[in-house]
Amino acid sequence: MTFDVITIFPGFFSSLLEYGVLKRARAAGQASIRLHDLRDFTNDRHRTVDDRPFGGGPGMVFKPEPVFKAVAAVEAESPGRPSPVILLSPQGRLFTQGLAKELARQDHLTLICGRYEGVDERIAEHVATDEISIGDFVLSGGELPAALIMESVVRLLPGVLGNEESAWQESFTAPEAGPLEFGRALLDFPHYTRPADFRGWRVPEVLLSGNHEEIRRWRRQRALEKTWRRRPDLLAGFPLSEEDREWLGALQRDADVPRRELPAIISSLGEQKL
Ligand code: 9D3
Asked: How far is the CA of 90 from the centre of ligand 1 (A)?
């Protein structure tokens, strides 16, 4: 898979490419990341990429022309089927595991990293095919979001991770989950390793018992409980078994603070086929 990244900070990405999944995928030829300096697509001697906003206001805005030229250059280098041109922007749709899976089906992506107060709207309307945000918090530009998207997409490519982990991914996100859906995931259960007693904090006895049925049940209950406490929104998209519902009902009854969400969540699952 090839990524073309258009940025005013190509050097920002160099250390990211030297570690972990991106390093391995590139070394194995499974991913190629090409960095393009937006300033190379300017004509003036100051290599100007931004200008003041029409209508006034603070800050600067990316000019359209260098971005259009950069995308045209990328497309000229990679003939073939049209591929997504993604503008990273706070106004974009939210990036999720489902969207990562959609993107991993492509063989080419172009990522445009904005900076300053934003980019000329004609970039979003007429050269980008998609606009993506990584979450509701303010960053200074699209470089970290572009890196994050590449990391999450590359690890989904066939052969980049070991088989064991790929199998886990399949259960993390149901194949039918659409790009904007939650991944039908629960939060993970707690993990422990040796020593069984660390400074007096003991690993839960059930994990040392060797009783695999009990361990499975304990892990499921801890995952459900953590999800219920911290991310009840995830339960709404998750197929719960009868045993799961009984456990959540018990948590609900024992809760110090009554939780309003749960009855609504469970009732909304009433007709769902398990
Ligand atoms: C503080 C400036 N904001 C005024 C309302 C607008 C704004 C413009 C440009 C806020 C951030 C940015 C730069 N951010 C991105 O380019 C960006 C981003 C983000 O800030 N959060 C989450 N995802 C993304 S993707 C690109």
From this structure: 4
